[in-house]
Design a protein that fits this description.
Bound molecules: 2-phosphoglycolic acid
Number of strands: 8
Number of domains: 1
Largest sheet: 8 strands, parallel
Radius of gyration: 17 Å
CATH class: Alpha Beta
Strand content: 5-15%
């Protein structure tokens, strides 16, 4: 039985005051919600403070990105061991916004994934197709390329200590959610692709959905067996909305 995970990707949002307010509202909203793993991924500068604020809470903390290098002359980058040292449990790698804006390719993302695991972090590996790619019938080809780069570099067993997030790029921040059927189809495809290498690893692997997930559409998505939680952007900045998704996930996992 896979325990659902709902992770909030705050992206480049927040301030000390806003974070404190959001976290205290979130802790109040989420009191008593169990049967679901929870995490928030704030911008790097706030991570240590958020870890501190959540020290007595079951909500884990994750970074939004890490370097593929452990240390050295890499100006502006944050190393996975640093994230681990300050108390992060997760780190997002390969988010489409970074694949696009920072030109991160799948080989680079695989190196980040390996660096994260070497530091003891659980990578949340993002995969997903652009609108034009879906329209051209290339969704499976695109997702396969993104997934295979990591499977080839790190091995299928590495997915015992990782999470995948399927995030169709056309659904991110657009209000256009994939229908539960569209999402479930790709989730099943991803699980089958991992199962081709190791069925046991695939059966235990958590595959999250991301892309305009909200409290009012979460239950429909999470009702599908292959959808094990969410990577939530916009709605994670609103405590009631995020908690609604967490409750839907807890309900679906029971
Ligand atoms: P969204 O973002 O929920 O705002 O669409 C999801 C993500 O990019 O992780």
């Amino acid at each position: 039985m896979r325990k659902p995970l709902v992770a909030g990707n705050w992206k480049m949002n927040g301030s000390r005051d806003a974070n404190r307010e959001l976290l205290s509202a979130l802790q109040a909203e989420l009191a008593g919600v169990d049967s679901v793993d929870l995490a928030v991924c704030p911008p790097a500068v706030y991570l240590a403070e958020v870890v501190d604020t959540l020290s007595a809470s079951p909500i884990a903390v994750g970074g939004q990105d890490c370097s593929d290098q452990a240390s050295g002359a890499y100006t502006g980058e944050v190393a996975a061991p640093m994230l681990r040292e300050i108390g992060c449990r997760y780190v997002i790698v390969g988010h489409s916004e970074r694949r696009e804006r920072q030109n991160e390719d799948s080989v680079w993302v695989a190196a980040k994934y390996q660096a994260a695991q070497a530091a003891g972090l659980v990578p949340i590996l993002c995969v997903g197709e652009q609108k034009e790619e879906r329209e051209a019938g290339r969704t499976e080809a695109v997702v396969s390329e993104q997934l295979d780069a990591v499977l080839d570099a790190a091995g299928v067993e590495s997915f015992d200590h990782a999470v995948i997030a399927y995030e169709p790029v056309w659904a991110i921040g657009t209000g256009l959610t994939a229908t539960p059927e569209q999402a479930a189809e790709v989730h099943a495809f991803i699980r089958n692709r991992v199962a081709a290498r190791d069925p046991r690893v695939a059966a235990d692997l958590r595959i999250l959905y991301g892309g305009s997930m909200k409290a009012d559409n979460a239950a429909g998505l999470l009702a599908h067996d292959d959808i094990d939680g969410g990577l939530v952007g916009g709605a994670s900045l609103d405590a009631a909305n995020f908690a609604g998704i967490a409750r839907a996930a807890a309900g679906a996992g029971e």
